[in-house]
Design brief:
Layout: H1 2-20, E1 24-27, H2 33-53, H3 55-61, H4 63-68, H5 73-92, E2 96-99, H6 102-122
Antiparallel strand pairs: 1-2
Helix pairs in contact: 1-2, 1-6, 2-5, 5-6
């Protein structure tokens, strides 16, 4: 159940980032609501897998930069994970996430982090 809740929180965060940040777009050839929800959930699933598998390795390799910048380099890592998610979703279909560059990805990463933090506080995880 926790995985489903986290997936929905990530989906809401990505949807809000696409709505608030210009340069981030959710690509869906059809305009009906059901298709958009499925696409956002699929993007959130890919984003969750990328964050689970790739992000720890990137964090470990960038540890000196993270220490040197007092943690601000983690924002760059979040942006890179979002760009990787966009690349993966774009490579497999016409559906997915479109990121127009590094700066929109950085701002979207900040939005996603903040939304995840706020919704994580509101939804208890059982710990």
């Amino acid at each position: 159940m926790q995985l489903v809740i986290r997936l929905v929180i990530n989906a809401v965060a990505i949807w809000l980032a696409a709505a608030w940040v210009s340069g981030i777009e959710i690509k869906s050839p059809e305009d009906d609501t059901t298709t958009k929800i499925v696409v956002v959930l699929a993007i959130a699933a890919v984003f969750t897998i990328v964050n689970a598998l790739v992000k720890p390795l990137v964090n470990l390799l960038s540890l000196p930069l993270v220490v040197l910048t007092l943690g601000l380099f983690l924002l760059v890592v979040n942006a890179l994970m979002l760009m990787l998610t966009a690349w993966i979703t774009d490579a497999f279909s016409d559906y997915g996430l479109a990121v127009d560059g590094f700066w929109p990805a950085l701002w979207a990463g900040i939005v996603i982090s903040l939304v995840n933090w706020v919704l994580g506080i509101l939804v208890p995880d059982g710990d």
